[in-house]
């Protein structure tokens, strides 16, 4: 009961903010007489989201799979590359400029190339999302593994601990808050990347729904797809936040 009460108190400002935005939105549409194709009312958006004419389940599954795949690729790849750069200074000096170069590439311009190389489907969208989201994980992992108190490292030397054991027992636990913080950023970046891929070329998914709704000026449908995208992003972000509370509760306490 106490945990439920604590969650309600914690989330009350955010809930109040959402309610306030919806009220202002509804009042603006009603009082100003804004046409639906420009700005639909919240009720019209909800109706579109629940419409049986649109196979929402299929589109949500396609986009959700692309987002989750992009997140996992970025997380695993970013942690591995970050660990390599922290393990060896020589590898870090060789790898980091290339990673910075890749990160500066315009992702929208790269998306057609991925489609050309890997064909149409979910996998190219995963790669685009991973490309957008992996760099923060690399940087934060490398920083978390490198910024260790000298006293902790001296303790390892006293016990003649091998390098891999120092990594496993000291460096990796120290990097948890850094990595988990980066994964929160990557959770939102994966959503952006997956939708960018669907915008470029797709036959299904929430991005595809937005593109097709533009041709018919069905703005409520586009807004409905956007809300579903936000729900998927919030769910992934919430999962990472929950993992943070388990793996690094001390860091969560500091953030709060």
UniProtKB/TrEMBL annotation:
CDD domains: TM_PBP2 (cd06261). It is found in: Cell membrane. The chain crosses the membrane at residues 7-28, 60-86, 98-120, 126-145, 175-201, 221-243. One of its GO terms (cellular component) is plasma membrane. It holds the Pfam family BPD_transp_1. InterPro entries: MetI-like (IPR000515), MetI-like_sf (IPR035906). It is a multi-pass membrane protein. Belongs to the binding-protein-dependent transport system permease family. This is ABC transporter permease. It comes from Flavimaribacter sediminis.
